Structure to design on (85 residues):
């Protein structure tokens, strides 16, 4: 769904730690597509499965950073300047 059309009462945005296998697959997908950044939309189903909706090579993330407090801009900047191995 479009983040500008969220129903905040029914569609929560929260920070969470992805299972290692899911996180690894996200990194592999991003790298496999030749990207250094990709905004990945996932959902977690009621039975605890993670489902990929899309990856956007220029996706918006600032609103997620503002809602969650996660340092996304800093991580992207570090990657761009080569501070992250």
């Amino acid at each position: 769904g479009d983040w500008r059309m969220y129903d905040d009462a029914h569609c929560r945005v929260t920070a969470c730690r992805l299972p290692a296998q899911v996180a690894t697959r996200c990194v592999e997908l991003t790298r496999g597509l030749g990207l250094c950044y990709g905004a990945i939309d996932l959902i977690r189903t009621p039975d605890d499965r993670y489902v990929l909706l899309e990856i956007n090579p220029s996706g918006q993330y600032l609103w997620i950073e503002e809602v969650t407090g996660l340092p996304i801009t800093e991580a992207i900047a570090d990657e761009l300047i080569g501070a992250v191995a």
Notes: Residues 36 and 47 are 31 Å apart (CA to CA). The radius of gyration is 14 Å. DSSP finds three helices and two strands in the chain.
